[in-house]
Amino acid sequence: MVDTGKQYRIAFVLAIFTIVYNVLEGLISTYLGFEDESLALFGFGADSFIEVISGLGIAHMIVRIQRRPNSNRDNFERTALKITGFAFYALVMALVATSIYNMYTGHKPLTTFWGVVISIISILVMWALVMGKRSVGKKLDSAPILADANCTLVCVYMSIILLISSGIYELWGIGYIDSLGTLGLAYFAFNEGKECFEKANSDKYCGCE
To answer: How many beta carbons lie within 10 A of that of residue 124, not counting itself?
Structure first.
């Protein structure tokens, strides 16, 4: 017999942890990205701040479905999704424009060492969150929580892109690889923004596929 109250508490704790982690990751990544002149790391940090907005909507969603399991998204969740979507699109435009400029001017980061370190930590943390959310989602048979787990998996993919681009630059010093990594992040950010608007305008819980 599944203790649904306990599982919902675990889901809520995971949501709050995701928010707190993204705040810390955003602060550290944007600071180090600015100091090291690494656009990929800075963009990764900016994405983390946007994930905080999304995380607030997820935490609210968990409380709602615990109280009213068959209810649809409310205005708070839809507003959070729209704000998140606009933020992702703004980030994409900024990252793409700056990437093209950096490649045109031949700009190179001072170092991408911290990009390697942060991406490895993020992969480990986010993968643990994916497993935790999937476990809770399966026990509760909750499509919304399982969808959130899949969206967290996108953060793993973005961390891998940061790791690859930062690692290649650190090993071989290929200047434009930081900008290419940034464009990879922009691709995922665009897809996340698109899905935010799709979710805001429907009651479906797609899984960031």
So the answer is: 12
Question: Rg for the chain (alpha carbons), in Å?
Answer: 18
Encoded amino acid at 138, one letter: K
- 44-90 pLDDT, tens digit per residue, is 999 999 999 999 999 999 999 999 988 889 999 999 999 999 999 99
Token reading at 7: 């599982």
Q: Give the tokens for residue 205.
A: 């819980």
- The predicted model scores a pTM of 0.96
DSSP 175: T
Residue 129 to residue 150: CA distance in whole angstroms: 10
CA 123/CA 166 separation, integer angstroms: 14
b (16+ CB within 10 A) / e for 142-168: bebbbbbbbbbbbbbbbbebbbbbbbb
Helix, strand, coil fractions of the chain, as percent rounded to 5: 85, 0, 15
Distance, in Å, from the CA atom of 30 to the CA atom of 28, rounded to the nearest integer, reads: 6
Q: Indicate the angle between helix axes 39-67 and 177-200, nearest 10 degrees.
A: 20
Domain boundaries, the chain: 4-200
Structure tokens at 114: 């911290």
Distance between CA 195 and CA 116 in Å, rounded?
A: 28
Over the stretch 96-108, which tens digit does the pLDDT of each residue have? 999 999 999 999 9
Locate 126 and state its tokens.
């986010």
Residue type, 38: S
